UniProtKB/TrEMBL annotation, chains A, B:
Belongs to the aspartokinase family. One of its GO terms (molecular function) is kinase activity. The lineage of its organism: Bacteria, Pseudomonadati, Pseudomonadota, Gammaproteobacteria, Vibrionales. Keywords: Amino-acid biosynthesis, ATP-binding, Kinase, Lysine biosynthesis, Nucleotide-binding, Transferase. Signal peptide: none annotated. Pathway: Amino-acid biosynthesis; L-threonine biosynthesis; L-threonine from L-aspartate: step 1/5; Amino-acid biosynthesis; L-methionine biosynthesis via de novo pathway; L-homoserine from L-aspartate: step 1/3; Amino-acid biosynthesis; L-lysine biosynthesis via DAP pathway; (S)-tetrahydrodipicolinate from L-aspartate: step 1/4. It comes from Photobacterium iliopiscarium. This is Aspartokinase.
């Protein structure tokens, strides 16, 4: 008998029919004799609907009240799943974050979990109940409702798994595991059976959408084994863990699209200070940190915030993509990677990286060709690196 | 400076535009120097939408989980109103029942308030905040979310007003006060400036929809002055209180439509025991309590539950209406009332009542003519009872 935490996202609970399917997955685990804590997001579309109401009132609604509003979304989905489970004869109890209790700081809209109390969950699990917890939310020391920011349900699941010392935290999503690259772009992308936390952290940081960086880091830090599974299909998914041996050198290829090249008429040292202050992440392209004009690459999603900081000092130059290879001693392959791209007429403007990852700045227009080519040559064929036997397409 | 509790129902908060209008009313009271606690229902339609989701799962969803689900509705409306007030520069804080704390029993879906803690509200009011509380909900001793049943927001408002020793509990609704009869049926219905709790209780019990019986009884018991006001128009509304002098004899006419006449092949004593057991209210028409067949009148809304109790022993005879007159020593007018109805060809099957009310059983088809006639003759004209000067139509 294991203790499992199973997290299902908004799409997985987007309708009563979908919630019935989630119940099937939960019941299957229960029938195997496992204790189960389920963590849910709000039904797909609900968070946006609530946010839409708030935006009718104010472009920046009161942060405290926004959290009260948004937390209602998960309250609906947990109640509905508990009803379905009860209807099918499996005793289930829903708990809001306040009922768990999940303690956070009071950084409304983007709170950080400090502690998860286990007593209520342990009592319920002990009496055979399935516990259904609202993801994404918490309470601060004054009893205010907080939320963890978008995608925070993954973090809730990991934090609960850590607190309960669960055997596995299973993240159910719309793909059946972690792939060597985005399977929607590259059809030959292969599902990984296992991946080491170090590489998964790189993948998430460098553009893989399947797991949120914050929750991977939290799981890594608290040594919680993660498994990515499909909500809709059977399968073993991908296990993210520490004691994982991999016989391939290059694990995967990640892509960050919609990146913006920006010139700022300030020295790089000043820019980096400001970026840190506002929690913005950018790739600094400056060669000399005392130059009067600096160049950075930043996600298009952060452009509006960047404008608030640098205003007229910044000039938007163009769109680029960042292609990253993740694997062991990846830097040693730099030359052959550059050669392959050059032969295909794809310009690499610059690169950066460390032992586990190598990021290349390319033109936005080249992203499809580049990811396809690099994945084919360095992951599937492995022709520069020897065969990669267990990476066969699942 | 007074302390006011203002309650707004679902229609009053049915859209962002409506919530903005509610904010206007609240701000007006605040500008007069009053401290204000606002109690809100869920946005119109929201409770039904949530109930619809639950009914897709089960005809009788898990009561505990139904309360978790439905309580999300008020959480949305309180957050939105607090945002609007903050946007307009009035500091406002929303509180769920759990944050207040509103203690109830654990009778899910129909819980009773035991106690309202005042400390959180008093602190916030003391620092100048407008406090916006979720109506309809509570928490039991184990921290479970409960709800008070439909219309429970009125009860929340009254309970908070009582706990805070508020000067007035103001119920904002879609009519501008308590009328001498339903103004949607009888255009000459007149708004009452004041009404004594005793008569208001009769009105609510006998069909007046403007105030819920439970909340009137609660307010009466805890001696909380109630005022019924329009959400949409200015006006003084109707004050329900104790030290109220009325110089008219007949205060109003109430109507209960959609009543069902039922024969049950059991003695009345047995039937009444069963009705008590299931919390059903009926008008027992039996003349001899040992008769093998009894006849009762029950609301059509309760018919399904009645069938569950008496099954094949009951037979549905027909639809009737109950017309009730409320006022001082009302029984003394029985003869003239019967005469007026008889002259108009309206049959009175039977009647019952006490010092403050008189109820007549009439055919369903006669209800419009009867209420119009009785209201005209005994309330507006007051011709059988002397003039009723301050009942002029507002």
């Amino acid at each position: 008998m294991a203790l499992l935490v199973q997290k299902f996202g908004g799409t997985s609970v987007g309708s009563i029919e979908r919630i019935e399917a989630v119940a099937e997955r939960v019941i299957k685990a229960r029938q195997c004799g496992h204790q189960v804590v389920v963590v849910l997001s709000a039904m797909a579309g609900e968070t946006n609907r609530l946010l839409g109401l708030a935006k009718q009132i104010d472009t920046i609604p009161t942060p405290r009240e926004l959290d009260v509003l948004l937390a209602a979304g998960e309250q609906v989905s947990i109640a509905l799943l508990a009803m379905v489970l009860n209807k099918r004869g499996y005793s289930a109890i829903s708990l809001t974050a306040d009922q768990v209790v999940i303690h956070t700081d009071n950084n409304f809209n983007n709170a950080t979990i400090h502690e998860v109390e286990t007593q209520n969950m342990t009592t319920l699990l002990g009496q055979g109940d399935i516990v259904v917890v609202a993801g994404f939310q918490g309470r601060d020391i004054d009893g205010n409702i907080t939320t963890l920011g978008r995608g925070g349900s993954d973090t809730t699941a990991v934090a609960i798994a850590s607190a309960l010392n669960a055997d596995e935290c299973q993240i159910f999503t719309d793909v059946d595991g972690v792939y060597s690259t985005d399977p929607r772009i590259v059809p030959s992308a292969a599902r990984l059976d296992v991946i080491h936390f170090d590489y998964m952290t790189c993948m998430a940081r460098l553009g893989a959408k399947v797991l949120q960086l914050q929750s991977v880091e939290y799981a890594c830090q608290h040594r919680v084994p993660l498994r990515v599974l499909s909500s809709f299909e059977e399968g073993q998914g991908t296990l993210v863990n520490f004691d994982v041996m991999s016989n391939q050198n290059i694990i995967g290829v990640a892509l960050q699209r919609q990146q913006v090249l920006v010139n700022i008429t300030l020295p790089a040292t000043v820019i980096n200070e400001q970026l840190d202050l506002y929690g913005l992440t950018a790739w600094d392209l400056s060669t000399d940190s005392s130059d009067e004009i600096s160049q950075i690459v930043i996600s298009n999603d952060d452009l509006a915030r960047l404008r608030l900081v640098f205003d007229s000092k910044m000039r938007h130059i163009g769109m680029v993509s960042i292609l990253s290879l993740i694997g062991k001693d990846i830097q040693q392959h730099l030359e052959s990677i550059q050669m392959v791209l050059q032969e295909a007429g794809i310009t690499v403007h610059t690169y950066q990286g460390d032992k586990k990852c190598l990021s290349l700045l390319i033109n936005e227009d080249d992203h499809l060709a580049a990811v396809d080519l690099i994945h084919e040559k360095f992951v599937v064929d492995g022709q520069c690196l020897g065969n990669l036997p267990h990476l066969a397409v699942s």
